[in-house]
Design goal:
10-stranded mixed β-sheet, 423 residues, alpha/beta, 30% helix, 11 helices, single chain, 4-stranded mixed β-sheet, binds inosinic acid
């Protein structure tokens, strides 16, 4: 049997997984997304066009690969329908390239309302959710009340939908929210979207993927969000509601751990975060602003400005440990080009104690990053090969490798497919 490679973000999401999956897809026959939902926004740029995917795996643009939305994903039919339309308008043949696992759960219109109501009720402690209904949908999944896409094939679907909606309306009342007239329209759009996505094959994802393995096919499991947003190991409670780490590929696709081959971790040469929650190396100065502008660090799902800061090595090492990362991909090194001195966090000073491991929580104590200062580098526009990267950037890469003990095998120097330097 062949093995599955897993590709994950190692920070707080938005590391550039979409671009890398697209670049690597020619090596794979199947790309399978294993968790998250339309809170994700995977941006790909090629042929001078920008494409943003929310639910569809990033292998969709290459005709050589099939794509699977795994059981661990939560699907909003309305978002998926829009995505499919846009892909279709761009000439992408989704019908023959995309399948959905029948066990994937559905996001209902009332899940979105519950998400908004719960965030509002949290006030200043809000998570900064994308408000796509992710948390409530996963709550219903683990609470054993959820609706799965496979249920749409059965006569009891409407009955199950009504029962769940009734429960949600009761919950919304507790938040003083009563659905208005626009809700009926939204509900109609939701059912229409379900009808339209029925053109895609619903499959038993776990059997399908095992058949691919038996046929010795090469498979890439694509994660969404990042390790520091993992429900168990992220900066809880400022996290998303799924396991974004490698273990999520097993439960989100029906894979045994022994089927996992390479675990490819993606990180940016700096850090960003959207939404609330701790961010020890955050920059509130001109450098932070320039990284945001140059790196176009604005959410592809919500448009929110991303918080920006220096690379955090203790956090990166933690993510490598939890995921068993076998190789690293560094994104957006070009964005730091032109900054004379670059800082990298190598430890934290927590109330006078130095440590290079992540604390139980960052809140309610003074956490000061300890930095190592390195020389910066200039423009990378003309660099075509890894070996031609400026010496200071090579030194930056060596420092990272020495610290986390995992090799960097690819460096991305811009959004285009061709700005990808293999080592
Ligand atoms: P939710 O998953 O939409 O509820 O959001 C929970 C937290 O995860 C918020 O801080 C979001 O900003 C963050 N988040 C969710 N999805 C993404 C993503 O794809 N990239 C970056 N942050 C995300």
């Amino acid at each position: 049997m062949s093995k599955i490679d897993v590709l994950l973000g190692l920070q707080w999401g938005d590391e550039g997984k979409g671009k890398v999956v697209d670049v690597l897809t020619p090596n794979y026959q199947l790309v399978a997304r294993f968790q998250g939902g339309p809170n994700a926004g995977h941006t790909l740029v090629f042929e001078d066009r920008k494409h943003v995917l929310h639910t569809v795996p990033s292998g969709i643009f290459r005709s050589s690969a099939k794509n699977l939305i795994g059981n661990g994903v939560v699907i909003d039919p309305i978002v998926l329908q829009k995505e499919l339309r846009t892909l279709h308008d761009n000439g992408v043949d989704t019908k023959n390239r995309l399948m959905i696992s029948e066990k994937a759960h559905l996001i209902l219109p009332t899940h979105r309302m519950l998400d908004a109501a719960s965030e509002k009720a949290k006030g200043k402690d809000k998570i900064g959710s994308t408000l796509k209904g992710i948390g409530p949908a996963y709550m219903d999944k683990t609470g054993r009340n959820g609706l799965r896409i496979g249920d749409t094939q059965h006569a009891t679907f409407l009955e199950k939908y009504e029962a769940l909606k009734k429960k949600h309306i009761q919950l919304l009342k507790a938040y003083d929210v009563i659905p208005d007239n626009s809700f009926v329209e939204e509900e109609n759009a939701w059912f229409a979207a379900i009808d339209s996505i029925k053109e895609l094959p619903l499959v038993s994802g776990e059997y399908y993927i095992h058949q691919c393995l038996q046929k010795q096919q090469r498979i890439l499991a694509e994660g969404a969000q990042g390790s520091l947003l993992d429900i168990d190991f992220g900066t809880y409670p400022y996290v998303t509601s799924s396991n974004t780490t490698c273990a999520g590929a097993c439960t989100g696709l029906g894979l045994p751990p022994s089927a996992i081959g390479n675990v490819i971790g993606i990180f940016k040469a700096y850090c960003t975060r959207v939404g609330s929650g701790p961010f020890p190396t955050e920059l509130h100065d001109e450098i932070g602003n320039s990284i945001r502008e140059k790196g176009k660090e604005f959410g592809s799902t919500t448009g929110r400005a991303r918080r920006c800061g220096w690379l955090d090595l203790p956090a990166l090492k933690f993510a490598c440990m939890i995921n068993g990362i076998t190789e690293l991909i560094m994104m957006k090194s070009d964005v730091l080009g032109g900054i004379p001195k670059i800082n990298v966090c190598t430890a934290y000073n927590i109330e006078g104690r130095l440590q290079d491991t992540l604390p139980y929580q960052f809140e309610n104590q003074k956490v000061e990053p300890i930095y190592k200062e390195l020389d910066g580098w200039g423009s990378l526009d003309q660099v075509k090969y890894f070996r031609d990267l400026p010496a200071s950037l090579q030194q930056y890469i060596r420092l990272i490798e020495d610290y986390v003990q995992v090799p960097v095998t690819l460096v991305s120097t811009g959004p285009g497919r061709e700005q990808t330097l293999f080592r």
